[in-house]
Design a protein that fits this description.
The chain has 82 residues and is an all-alpha fold. The chain has 3 helices and no strands. The protein is globular.
Length: 82
């Protein structure tokens, strides 16, 4: 699975997002479009970190707000740890 597919799977399986696959685009906003609350966001981060066995270490001042920003952060961390 590529990073987009992993994030989609986590959003649907662990965060309760009921959006059809084609609607989870990189532009989809985590809170406004996908309906994640603080617990959903925390679940998303924990599940991503568990899946990739790494810490995302997102900036508290500028956390990822879209699926695309989250994917970018994951890819940056994967490159930094490899």
């Amino acid at each position: 699975m590529n990073t987009q597919e992993v994030v989609d799977h986590i959003l649907k399986t662990h965060c309760g997002v009921k959006t059809p696959p084609l609607l989870i685009t990189t532009e989809a906003r985590l809170v406004e479009d996908l309906g994640l609350d603080s617990v959903g966001l925390l679940t998303l981060v924990v599940e991503v970190e568990n899946h990739y066995q790494m810490q995302l270490e997102e900036s508290p001042e500028q956390p990822p707000r879209t699926v695309g920003q989250l994917i970018e952060l994951i890819e940056q961390r994967r490159l930094a740890t490899s």
